[in-house]
Amino acid sequence: MVTRTVDLRSDTVTKPTEAMRAAMANADVDDDVLGVDPTAYRFEAEMAKVMGKEAALFVPSGTMGNLISVLVHCEIRGSEVILGDNSHIHVYENGGISTIGNVHSKTVKNNSDGTMDISLIEASIRDPEEELYYPTTRLICLENTHANCGGRCLTVEYTNKVGEVAKKHGLKLHIDGARIFNASTALGVPVSKLVQAADSVSVCLSKGLGAPIGSVIVGSKSFIAKAKRLRKTLGGGMRQVGILCAAAYVALHENVGKLEDDHKKTKILADGINQIKELSIDMSSIETNIIFFDILEGSNVTVEKLVQFLEKHGILVMPASSSSIRLVLHHQISECDVQYTLSCIQQAVQLQVENVRN
Ligand SMILES: Cc1ncc(COP(=O)(O)O)c(C=O)c1O
Question: What is its EC number (predicted)?
Answer without folding.
Answer: 4.1.2.48
